[in-house]
Structure formats: C-alpha cells, structure tokens
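Exercise 7b. Backbone tokens:
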C-alpha cells in the first residue's frame, strides 16, 4: 500500500513539475501564461488562518562566504517584519498545501505553504513562504489544502533554511 501511495504521489508531482518547468521559461504563449497564473495562485485563506502575505513580507537576504577552496557558499537569511515577530509564540491557524517529509500516509513532520506541490524533491517557493509543521499526531497526507493549528515559532534554522515552525500542531 505504501509503495502505491509513493508511486501515485511521485507521478502527480511529476505532472505538476512539468507545469512549473514551463513557467520558468519565457516561451509561454499568452494563453499558457494566463492559464498558469490562473491555476498557480496562492491559496486564499479563510476564517482565522494567517494570510500568507504576512509570511511573504519577510525579506530573504543572501549571505555569501568563500570557503577554503575558494568556492562561494551562499545562504538566505531572514529579515523578519514586526507583523511576523508579533505572532512568535502564539497559537495560530494555517491553511495551505502539504509537502511531505516522511514516506508515510500520516505526517507528523511536513512543510506547508500557499501553493500546490510541483516537485517531489523541492518545494519551488522561497523560504519566507514555507512553515515546517511538527504535529503531535499524524495528519493524513492530502493534495488538497489543509487547515492546521499550533504554536508559531519564528526561528531561523541555518542548516535547513527554515524560517518558521508550527509546533504542537493539530487539526482544528
């Protein structure tokens, strides 16, 4: 059963990644571009869910260093706004699309963002639009939007590039 889940998930991601690959080129016709923009809008949250534009207001600042061999190593660091810092440590509701980090149907650790998945290996959006979710109990994976509650922690993780966490997450 798990193999079938992974196979279906991979095929769905592959199809979506083709659409993303098209968007990365300037070879789209006006009709293709209009279709892409109509279908790849960020989710419109409802109720008490935090609008994704609050997360997107965080600036990603590129920080580069040269290693011992002379290669540049660049990472993105956050410059948080007051709006997002005011939410640090508070119970919030998020509505978005899951990006699984575990090969299981029920996810305890996953990413959530405002756009549907486009690739099984990488969430093709900036780190300011991604929240890592740490759930108490597994949340069933879905390609449809999910709503989840938990404590928002605004904390930069240089190793993973994550800007925010939703801890003690649970379904509302």
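Sequence design result:
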């Amino acid at each position: 059963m798990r193999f079938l889940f992974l196979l279906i998930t991979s095929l769905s991601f592959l199809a979506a990644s083709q659409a993303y690959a098209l968007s990365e080129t300037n070879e789209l016709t006006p009709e293709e571009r209009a279709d892409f923009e109509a279908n790849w809008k960020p989710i419109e949250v409802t109720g008490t869910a935090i609008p994704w534009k609050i997360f997107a207001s965080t600036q990603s600042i590129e920080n580069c260093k040269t290693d011992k061999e002379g290669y540049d190593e660049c990472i993105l660091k956050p410059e948080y706004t007051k709006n997002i810092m005011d939410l640090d440590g508070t119970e919030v509701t998020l509505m978005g699309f899951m990006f699984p980090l575990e090969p299981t149907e029920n996810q305890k650790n996953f990413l959530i963002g405002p756009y549907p998945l486009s690739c099984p290996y990488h969430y093709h959006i900036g780190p300011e639009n991604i929240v890592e979710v740490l759930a108490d109990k597994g949340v069933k994976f879905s390609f449809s939007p999910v709503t989840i509650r938990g404590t928002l922690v605004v904390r930069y993780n240089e190793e993973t590039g994550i800007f925010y966490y939703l801890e003690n997450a649970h379904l509302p």
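Instructor comment: Strands lie at 59-66, 72-79, 91-100, 106-113, 131-140, 146-157, 162-170. The first strand starts at residue 59 and ends at 66.
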